[in-house]
Amino acid sequence: MIHLLSTRDLSREDAIGLLDVAEDMAAVQDREVKKLPTLRGKTVVNLFFEDSTRTRISFEAAAKRLSADVINFSAKGSSVSKGESLKDTAQTLHAMGADGVVIRHHASGAPFTLATSGWIDAGVLNAGDGTHEHPTQALLDAFTMRRRLHGTASRGRDLDGVSVVIVGDILHSRVARSNVWLLETLGAEVTLVAPPTLVPVDVTGWPANLEYDLDRALAGAPDVVMMLRIQAERMHGAFFPNSREYARTWGLDDARFAQLPASTMVMHPGPMNRGLEIAARAADSPQSTVREQVANGVSVRMAALYLLLSGERGEAR
To answer: How is the quaternary structure described (predicted)?
Structure first.
C-alpha cells in the first residue's frame, strides 16, 4: 500500500486484509508491553490543519506503539498562519526525511494533492479532508461491527448482509461518505437518514438507500444505527428549524432507543452532542460501541501505518 486516501478505492480483499492486521495489532494492546519494533527508524508526521482530539491522539499512539518517531504539526502557531502553502510545508517535511504523513485538512482533496504532487516522497494517509472522506474512521467502524458480530472468529470475515442505518448530517459528513463505500465493499446494506436539507444534492451514485423518516428506517430493526454529529461549524445557514425540532424528528432519543432490539449496535464517531443527535441513555448503554470505537481506532491506525510504512507496498490506495 502506497497511500490510504479513500475507502472507495479499497477492494474487498484489501479491506479485509487491513482489518485482519488490525486484529493482530489489537492483540498487542492486551500485552503488558504495548509496543512493537516494526517501524523503528521511521518518522511519521501528524499534519493537522484542523482541530482534532481523538484522531490526532489515536494516530500518535498508533505510531509510537509501532516504535516510530512522531512529529506533531498544527497549523495554529506554525508558518501556515503566516501564509505558508501546503507545497512549502510538504517540501519542508521532505527535507526533514518524513516517511509517512498523516494529514487532516479543511480542503477536500488536499491529501490526494499531497500524495500525487511529487512534493514529498512519503506515504500519505488521509485523516479527514473537508467534507470528502475519513477512511480510517470507516475502517475502525467496520472493525468494531465485525468484532461485535463475530467476536474472536472475525478474522477473514466481511459484513455481508449486515443492515446499517446512518443518521444525521450526511451533507457535511466525511465519515458517512467513507462508511457508505467501505460498507458496500464489505457487503453491508446501508440506509441514509437525514432532513432533506442535510442530504447532498446528488446521491444517486451512492450505494445506499435514502430515507427521510427515522422511525420508518428503525422499524426494520437494523443491526447497526450510526448517529452523526451535527457539524455546526460547517453550516452557514439554517438547515433545520431548531435543535429541539431536530432532536424530536431525527435524534435517537429514549423512546426510539427503547424500541430497538437489544442486539442493535449504537455507534457514533464523536464528539457527541448529547441530547441533540443521541440521548445519554443510548450513548452509555451496553449496546453503544462509542468507547470501543475509540480503542479500536488505535489498532486500525496501527495496521494502516504498518501497511503503509513497513515496505509491504503495492498499488496506490
So the answer is: Heterododecamer (2C3:3R2) of six catalytic PyrB chains organized as two trimers (C3), and six regulatory PyrI chains organized as three dimers (R2).
Domain residues for 173? Answer: 135-289
Residue 148 assigned as binding residue: no
Q: What is the CATH number of the domain that holds 93?
A: 3.40.50.1370
Question: Residue 104: inside a domain, yes or no?
Answer: yes
Q: Are residues 142 and 104 in the same domain?
A: no
Q: How far apart are CA 283 and CA 203, in angstroms?
A: 29
The verdict on whether residue 55 carries a ligand-binding annotation is: yes
The per-residue pLDDT for range 212-234, each reduced to its tens digit, is 999 999 999 999 999 999 876 65
Q: Is residue 48 part of a domain?
A: yes
Question: Is 82 annotated to bind ligand?
Answer: yes
| pLDDT tens per residue, range 17-30 | 999 999 999 999 88
Q: How far apart are the first and last CA of the chain?
A: 6
Q: Is 291 annotated as a binding residue?
A: no
pLDDT digits (tens, 9 = 90+) for 134-176: 999 999 999 999 999 998 789 999 999 999 999 999 999 999 9
Was 271 annotated as part of a binding site? yes
Tens digits of per-residue pLDDT, 51-95? 888 899 999 999 999 999 999 987 765 556 556 789 998 999 999
Number of domains making up the chain: 2
- 196 assigned binding-site residue: no
pLDDT at 309 over 90: yes
2 belongs to a structural domain: no
Question: Binding residue per annotation — 91?
Answer: no
